[in-house]
Amino acid sequence: MSFNIAFNGDMYFFKYEASQGEFEMAIEKSICEIIHQDTTVECLAQHVLHETQKIATGTIEVRAFEGVGKGALVSS
Known about the structure:
alpha+beta, 2 domains, two-stranded antiparallel ribbon, 5 strands, flat
């Protein structure tokens, strides 16, 4: 699998090739966050919990899904 990221002004450009074929997308930087960790559903759920704890108080529960019967649940 190959993966490329390009930056141009206010946009991120992503391109990768997997066994299913070649994929490309462009996303505005203002609505995209580049995270420097594994991107498993478990890690993404933990990341969302951590970021939410910065702006919210009380008990927080994050449920993240990547398919039927596959997901993660984390809470504070």
